[in-house]
């Protein structure tokens, strides 16, 4: 069934229960996103960049997980949304080399597009560096299920045994 959704004051049509992120993007609205994939039924929702506000909901929600409901009214920009997106962006950059001039993705990179659209600086000089030389904490039992590595949005976690692979990531 087709629903009517109002995004930034403009009415669009979208399928009930489809994801708000794709409905917005398909209708010409940009919402920053990195981890969403169209062919995955259950979104990872790990990059935390796609926050939007929905009238009647107390807190911003991630557009990649939010189902379309008839009559929903959506805001794509607000100080709250901006703060949340900026924190997520900083987390991503805190573990990033940012050597754009030597990078294959330069000029066609999603991080660069998001930085431009959100007016974020593409720099991590103001962020604390992650120290990868810390000892492994062996005080907790670990059954090597890899769940922590899979969900970590900034790749700060890594495999104890490098030859192991993280499935579907
Ligand atoms: S071009 Fe993009 S992926 Fe490459 S270093 Fe720059 S920000 Fe990172
Ligand atoms: S696209 Fe990554 S959390 Fe929504």
Structural description of this entry:
The protein has 169 residues and is of the alpha+beta class. It has a domain at 2-118: Roll (Ubiquitin-like (UB roll)), CATH 3.10.20. It has helices at residues 20-26, 79-93, 110-118, 147-151; strands at 2-7, 10-15, 51-54, 61-62, 73-75. The chain has a 5-stranded mixed β-sheet, sandwiched between helices. A hairpin with a 2-residue loop joins strand 1 (2-7) and strand 2 (10-15). The two termini are 33 Å apart. 19% of the residues are buried.
What structural class do the secondary elements suggest?
Answer: alpha+beta
Task: Please bin the fraction of helical residues.
Answer: 10-25%
Named once each, the bound ligands are:
iron/sulfur cluster, FE2/S2 (inorganic) cluster
Largest sheet: 5 strands, mixed
If classified by CATH, what would the architecture of one domain be?
Roll
Shape: globular
CATH C-level name of one domain: Alpha Beta
CATH topology category name of one domain: Ubiquitin-like (UB roll)
Average pLDDT over all residues: 87
Rg calc: 18 Å
Number of helical regions: 4
Unreliable sequence segments: none
* Strand numbers in spatial order across the main sheet: 2-1-5-3-4
Strand content: 5-15%
**Structure summary, number of beta strands:** 5
Distance between the termini: 33 Å
H/E order of the elements? EEHEEEHHH
């Amino acid at each position: 069934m087709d629903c009517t959704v109002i995004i930034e004051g403009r009415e669009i049509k979208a399928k009930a229960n489809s994801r708000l992120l794709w409905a917005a993007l398909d209708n010409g609205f940009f919402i920053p996103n990195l981890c969403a994939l169209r062919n995955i039924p259950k979104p990872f929702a790990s990059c935390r960049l796609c926050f939007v506000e929905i009238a009647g909901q107390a807190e911003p929600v991630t557009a990649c997980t939010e189902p379309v409901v008839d009559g929903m009214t959506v805001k794509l920009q607000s100080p709250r949304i901006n703060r949340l997106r900026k924190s997520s962006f900083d987390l991503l950059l805190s573990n990033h080399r940012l050597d754009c001039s030597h990078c294959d993705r330069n000029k066609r990179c999603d991080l660069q597009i998001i930085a431009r659209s959100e007016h974020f600086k593409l720099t991590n000089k103001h962020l604390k560096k992650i120290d990868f030389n810390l000892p492994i904490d062996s005080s907790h039992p670990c059954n090597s299920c890899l769940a922590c590595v899979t969900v970590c949005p900034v790749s700060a976690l890594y495999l104890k045994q490098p030859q192991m692979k993280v499935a579907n990531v």
